[in-house]
Design goal:
binds zinc ion; 355 residues; 18 strands; 13-stranded mixed β-sheet
């Protein structure tokens, strides 16, 4: 599959919600819009078809004053999985997750890989100013930005969206990691799709990013940034019956109905996740290298599944499909960046993880 590449917005495209884009575009599409500064801001939306805040933010941004005024900076817009958007799904059952198929991915070669290779090479040549990939999630999470490198410009870009910033290296093959090779690059998580607050936040952020002259090459001050590193991912094995709260019935693994309230809270050891039927944890925790570490993170006490060590979860969801298609949650630990006030740090030292 090839990307469609356009040098203008198709007429009235901005009038259409995400679910209707497949009727007006011929597949994943890259659109170049010129602005006063030539080095473009790259913006990616709808890699996950049901995560519509990014597209809604772009619609509002471009329907406003920039219909008459020139853009302050060129904009290169990537509109991702519109066939999944037409169905309101993250991806269609026969598709792989688009945001695992960018250069650097580890899931073989499928329908998206060639297309995303081309998008990457096309944009790399344009020497983008920065890259912003916009998502939603299903659980109760604060809005936050994520980076794939501890790089001053990327951290500055991220901390303009949220004080909480997540550093992750897994899963591989994500857009922000691929583009981090050639420009400051962030992923935005804008809370649940369809909520006005997520769209507003993304819209305001895009407008401010378009108007930036440059990004500081200095690490943000510690008081402007809470940086967390993802150290484990928690999954439920495919065969296992599970559920949340009252909806769990007699499933082997019955998670608390409001588990997602734990997102971005520092959980002490002994925090309850679920009730289990047969004395086994049911869930599996893996390190970012893919090594199973369930016993390091969780234990069964009586009929309860509890945590064994301090951690902060992110992306905890109570949506069974989201757990099946992706994961239950990520577990994070706090990172302290080494900051020298006033020092210019082109090559920051590696962070020290907090114990
Ligand atoms: Zn997403």
């Amino acid at each position: 599959m090839q990307p469609v590449i356009l040098d203008h917005l198709p007429a009235r495209l901005l009038e259409h919600p995400a679910a209707a884009l497949a009727d007006h575009l011929d597949g994943p599409t890259l659109i170049h819009l010129p602005g006063r500064r030539p080095s473009p801001l790259f913006v990616s939306v709808l890699q996950h078809g049901n995560e519509i805040s990014g597209w809604d933010a772009v619609r509002r941004l471009l329907s406003g004053r920039y219909q008459r005024d020139p853009l302050p900076r060129s904009l290169t817009l990537f509109i991702g999985n519109i066939s999944a958007a037409a169905q309101g799904k993250r991806h269609l059952p026969e598709q792989t997750d688009m945001n695992r198929c960018w250069p650097g991915g580890s899931n073989g070669r499928g329908e998206w890989h060639g297309l995303l290779d081309q998008v990457t090479e096309h944009v790399r040549v344009l020497k983008p100013f920065a890259s912003i990939d916009i998502h939603n999630n299903t659980g109760e999470n604060p809005h936050y930005a994520a980076v794939n490198r501890i790089d001053p410009r990327a951290l500055n870009l991220a901390s303009r969206f949220s004080r909480t910033v997540v550093y992750f290296t897994e899963p591989a093959g994500v857009q922000s990691a691929a583009f981090a090779d050639f420009c400051p690059s962030v992923t935005l998580e804008c809370g649940p799709p369809g909520k006005r607050g997520g769209t507003d936040h993304a819209m305001t952020y895009l407008e401010s990013a378009l108007n930036l002259d440059e990004l500081p090459e200095r690490l943000p001050h510690p008081e402007d940034l809470d940086l967390f590193q993802v150290t484990a991912v928690v999954r439920v094995p495919g065969m296992l019956k599970f559920g949340f709260g009252a909806g769990a019935g007699d499933a082997a693994l019955r998670f608390d109905g409001h588990l997602d309230r734990l997102n971005f809270t520092e959980m002490p050891p002994g925090t309850r996740f679920a009730r289990v039927a047969d004395g086994r944890p049911g869930i599996q925790a893996f390190s970012t290298e893919g090594e199973e570490q369930t016993g390091d993170w969780f234990e069964v006490v009586g009929d309860k599944l509890v945590t064994r060590r301090p951690a902060m979860p992110a992306m905890l969801t109570t949506d069974v499909d989201a757990v099946r298609q992706d994961c239950l949650c990520y577990l994070m630990e706090r990172v302290r960046i080494q900051h020298r006030r006033g020092a210019r740090m082109d090559h920051p030292e590696l962070p020290e993880s907090a114990p």
